[in-house]
Design brief:
The complex is a heterotrimer of chains A (299), B (344) and C (339). Chain A has 299 residues and is mainly α. Chain A has a single domain, classed as Orthogonal Bundle (MetI-like fold). Chain A contains eleven helices and no strands. Chain B contains twelve helices and eleven strands. In chain B, the strands form two sheets. Chain B has a seven-stranded mixed beta sheet, sandwiched between helices. Chain B has a four-stranded antiparallel beta sheet with strand order 2-1-4-5, with helices on one face. In chain C, 76% of the residues lie in helices and 0% in strands. Chain C has 14 helices and no strands. The longest helix of chain C has 38 residues. The chains are: A mainly alpha (299), B alpha/beta (344), C mainly alpha (339). Chains in contact: A-B, A-C, B-C. Chains A and C meet through helix 5, helix 6, helix 9, helix 10 and helix 11 of A and helix 1, helix 6, helix 7, helix 9 and helix 11 of C.
Chain lengths: 299, 344, 339
């Protein structure tokens, strides 16, 4: 610990941060953090790809063309073709929609239910707390991917079940976060005041406590998205959930796996790279959000 | 006790020392023109508000300053070695063996997951030529010398198992294990209750006189310094403003800041209403236009000359000196706009 | 003694989790859509066979009774029968478990050997190239899809460079496995004094272990770096410096040991990832562990092995967390008082 003398005058706030409140602050942080800006741009690109991709792809992702099977990347097929002659680029682009869709649905579901449970546990305490804690602990008693496998195997091999399984294994993060926040604020002055003015508990939760947990929740959501995509791709890779011929990044890598050791590297490489890029983007975004919201936690 | 025969060669001689910190919001001119001499066996009190630079000075001498620190001028002679600019190996040999330091918050200043006996052994192993078989006995003996009861058992204790006062005794044992010539005590009793405070200070005093060890006692508590120090050096905003033997300082303070510090220190019969405080705050040390006397904005005796003329810094050899154009033992200057501003 | 009390308390604390694991695996199989008996009997079963299974597994009884039967069966070691191989599930799991464990631990070892020094160096030399490397690793590392990384590594090192052996399992068919003591080839080969066999097994395990470890490198390095940075600026390190202790003493005896505490806590999450990616890595490298057993059973719609697999992984993970807790308690003497 250095004995740095106390700096008396506070450093003047940067002019950019002063203007425009939250939006100005976001812009300021983005300009200070080119990496976060890059991640945000990449994220926007992916979203556009997911929304409009299917309309702009050069080939029909499902159309097989056996004479053209396993052709390396060329001007006609930028990412090459797979074992059935389908254009890999088109499939990769269309897969974005599916993978993003799974990730977004799963994380949203997880967030809503997990936050609600966590808030209840933290705010009401008692039996609520005990049971919900037990639920979270039980989920976390398993290696999460294994639990997801078990759930999908039990419920059935469908995309919907991948979403449910991914949602379930992400619940504990949100439960714990919401519970901690609610616990902290349960005895806070403004909560007491709200109670005294006749507000009912659920209203207090919704209006006063929930908005306070949004910032850390956003960080968690972003990081979870990346992980949810990895999860979904992993499950598809081992044959759960998405079935051929549906294009999905994980299942495409699985297809390519059989060919990679005989030299047809493009079948697995491009889907894998794009997958990596998407996850990377979410992680960067999550880190960037964390820096905006709580610079003290920067590591 | 004041020295009857002053040892002519000081143990530590800091001369015209200056230090700054590079920070994101500017350069902090933390210390300037520091002259300080400590003689063998002397207890010198370094007194000042938080932020006056007392701790910074001691860290700089020992070479354990923050990374952002830059030494701008001066020397710190320990014997014939200039600590400033010496290489790390030489400094590390001196630390803990010739010059030791104890800190505030003793419990956090000790390794929380290592037995205190082992921590003392670490210092012994590093500096003293002790055989491994004897290390443990020496460590226990160090604990005994700081009046820790049942030292053989306490050897195995962890800091969290001990009270604040005990932890400070352990730190003292650690610091004194290799019998250093100089002990720097940086606010050792802040945070301890008054009874424990007295116990720790008495212990330091006793050990210092037994071993003829010099002590640099850093504190913001003038009352405490009065009770235990032979000589007091007053710091303000990175400058030394006055230096005098204790009694002289209290009976005849010469710097306006010293007088205000004394007035602000509660005495036994103080009443809350009659306590005075020192107006204003420490100046922002990042300013490029700092006046030669940094007390000028808080001083009732300031005149234009104080803002322009560089002060002759306190000399090393004088036993009582002050850095001020209008010290209290001279006539007060005419009331300036500064005084009315301060009084307002 | 304090430590024994802590161990006992932790053991007791693990019991609810074990119960939870058993309950969840029970629910998973009984939550199968349609007729669970049909799933266990297999697709080729006749209606009579299905009915037999139904009675045998007690699927016609009320839920609580079913659970009781289930637990009783587990206690007897009856995890059911695999449809595809006809073997008892427990036997097959037991045979294959050492392979998975060996892989997991080698992956962890690799991750620790790389991540810890990286984190320490990044903390002691802030702003240097190694600090930047650490930051890149920690950000990029968690984005790596394990199955893809494995494929890439196999492609580059086996197909392109020819350094690595063919990714076809634990041992080149030329060799026969060492005499079985632990089931882990590396250990057994060393114990049997067979250097050549050890080396052959080692060569096969490098790529899969590295693949496993790469993903968990990131959180480990990140936590090590953050923890070291925090510790290095703490009060007791300042005291150690002021006492003139040598740089290495300060770094290892004082800083590193304290910094490891949060890292040990991170190991729980690390094992969750490792055990999960086991499945993926075993598929890519044809590693005959319980992960590939589960995948084969999934493909064959063979449910008893899957249930056994999930149960085993759950129990294993609970036990591993217990060990981590105990390890932490051994390093940090302050833990006893909070228990």
């Amino acid at each position: 610990m250095s004995a740095t003398p106390a700096v008396i005058a506070a450093s003047p706030a940067s002019p950019a941060a002063k203007s425009g409140g939250t939006w100005g602050h976001i812009r300021y942080v983005l300009s200070e953090n080119p990496v976060t800006l890059f991640a945000a741009a990449l994220f926007a690109a992916f979203v556009l790809l997911a929304l409009f991709g299917p309309y702009i792809v050069p080939y029909d992702p499902m159309a097989s063309n056996t004479p053209e099977a396993l052709k390396p990347p060329s001007w006609g097929h930028w990412f090459g073709t797979d074992s059935l002659g389908r254009d890999i680029l088109s499939r990769v682009v269309v897969a974005a929609r599916l993978d993003f869709g799974i990730a977004v649905s799963a994380v949203m579901l997880s967030f809503i239910i997990g936050t609600a449970l966590g808030l209840a546990a933290g705010f009401f305490g008692g039996w609520w707390d005990r049971i919900i804690n037990r639920l979270a602990d039980t989920i976390m008693a398993f290696p999460l991917f294994v639990l997801a496998m078990g759930i999908v195997a039990a419920l059935g091999n469908t995309v919907a079940n991948i979403v449910y399984a991914t949602a379930i294994i992400n619940l504990p993060f949100y439960i714990r976060m919401a519970r901690a926040e609610a616990n902290v604020r349960r005895g806070a002055g403004f909560v007491e005041a709200a109670r005294l003015t006749g507000n009912r508990d659920w209203r207090i939760l919704a209006m006063h406590i929930f908005p306070n947990i949004l910032p850390p929740a956003m960080v968690q959501v972003s990081l979870n998205m990346g992980w949810a995509i990895l999860n979904a791709a992993g499950l598809s890779f081992i044959g759960l959930g998405v079935r051929p011929p549906t294009p999905e990044w994980g299942i495409m890598v699985a297809d390519g796996a059989t060919y990679i050791v005989s030299g047809e590297w493009w079948v697995a490489l491009f889907p894998g790279l794009v997958l990596m890029l998407a996850v990377f983007c979410f992680n960067l975004l999550g880190d960037g959000l964390r820096d905006i919201i709580d610079p003290r936690r920067r590591t | 006790m004041s020295m009857t025969t002053a040892d002519p060669v000081p143990l530590l001689k800091v001369e015209d020392f200056g230090l700054e910190f590079r920070t994101r919001s500017g350069t902090v001119h933390a210390l300037e023109h520091i002259n300080l001499a400590i003689h063998k066996g002397e207890t010198v009190g370094l007194v000042g508000e938080s932020g006056s630079g007392k701790s910074v000075l001691s860290y700089a001498i020992l070479g354990i300053s923050d990374r952002a620190a830059r030494i701008t001028a001066g020397s710190a002679l320990f014997g014939s070695l200039n600590m400033i600019g010496a290489d790390e190996k030489t400094l590390a040999d001196i630390r803990g063996r010739e010059i030791s330091m104890i800190f505030q918050n003793p419990r956090t200043a000790l390794n929380p997951i290592r037995k205190i006996g082992k921590q003392i052994e670490d210092v012994l192993r590093r500096h003293a030529a002790v055989r491994s078989e004897d290390l443990r006995a020496r460590a226990v003996e160090s604990l005994r010398q700081v009046n820790i009861p049942d030292p053989e058992r306490r050897y195995h204790a962890y800091p969290f198992e001990l009270s604040g006062g005990m932890c400070q005794r352990v730190m003292i044992a650690l610091a004194l294990a290799c019998k250093p010539a100089l002990l720097v005590a940086d606010e050792p009793t802040t945070g301890l209750d008054v009874t424990t405070q007295a116990g720790i200070m008495d212990l330091i005093k006793e050990l210092a006189s037994e071993r003829d060890m010099a002590t640099l006692f850093i504190t913001h508590d003038l009352g405490l310094a009065a009770d235990y120090c032979d000589r007091i050096v007053v710091m303000h905003a990175g400058h030394i403003v006055e230096s005098a033997p204790t009694r002289t300082l209290f009976e005849r303070p010469r710097h306006p800041y010293t007088a205000q510090l004394i007035a602000a220190t509660p005495a036994r019969d103080s009443v809350l209403e009659t306590l005075s405080s020192i107006p204003g705050n420490l100046p922002d040390l990042r300013r490029g236009d700092l006046p030669p006397c940094r007390f000028v904005d808080r001083c009732t005796r300031a005149t234009p000359v104080c803002r322009e003329k560089p002060l002759p810094p306190i000399g090393l050899e004088a036993t009582a000196s002050v850095a001020c154009w209008h010290p209290l033992d001279q006539a007060a200057p005419a009331l300036t706009e500064n005084e009315s501003a301060v009084a307002a | 003694m304090g430590l024994w009390r802590v161990i006992l308390l932790r053991l007791v604390g693990a019991i609810p989790n074990l119960i939870g694991v058993v309950v969840v695996t029970f629910l998973l199989t009984r939550a199968l859509p349609g007729d669970p008996a049909a799933y266990f009997a297999g697709q080729a079963a006749t209606p009579e066979a299905v009915q037999q299974i139904r009675v045998k597994l007690g699927l016609d009884k009320p839920m609580p009774e079913q659970f009781g039967l289930y637990v009783r069966d587990l206690a007897k070691g009856d995890f059911g029968q695999s449809l595809s191989t006809g073997q008892p599930v427990l036997t097959e799991l037991r045979q294959r478990l050492p392979a998975s464990l060996e892989l997991t631990f080698c992956g962890l070892l690799f991750a620790v050997i790389v991540a810890l020094p990286l984190g320490v160096l990044a903390a002691t030399r802030p702003g240097s190239w190694i600090d930047h490397l650490c930051r890149v690793v920690t950000t990029a590392g968690v984005s790596l899809p394990t199955f893809f990384t494995g494929l890439l590594l196999a492609y580059v090192f086996y197909f392109l460079l020819g350094i690595a052996p063919s990714p076809l399992g634990r041992l080149d068919p030329v060799f026969s496995p060492p005499p079985n003591i632990t089931g882990m080839y590396l250990i057994d080969a060393l114990v049997a004094g067979e250097g050549g066999l050890f080396w052959a097994s080692f060569k096969q395990i490098i790529l899969p272990a590295v693949t496993m470890g790469l993903f968990v490198l990131a959180p480990l390095a990140r936590m090590t770096r953050a923890s070291m940075l925090g510790i290095l600026s703490s009060d007791f390190i300042r005291t150690a410096r002021a006492s003139g202790l040598s740089g290495s003493t300060i770094l290892y005896t004082y800083a590193f040991r304290n910094a490891m505490l949060p890292v040990v806590t991170t190991l729980g999450m690390v094992f969750s990832f490792l055990l999960g990616s086991n499945v993926l890595v075993e598929k890519v490298f044809a590693w005959p562990g319980i992960g590939s057993y589960a995948i084969e059973s999934l493909t064959a719609s063979d449910y008893a092995p899957i249930q056994g697999f999930v149960l085993t992984m759950g129990v294993l993970y609970v036990l591993l967390n217990l060990v981590i807790d105990l390890l932490y308690g051994m390093i940090d003497p302050r833990v006893g008082i909070e228990a």
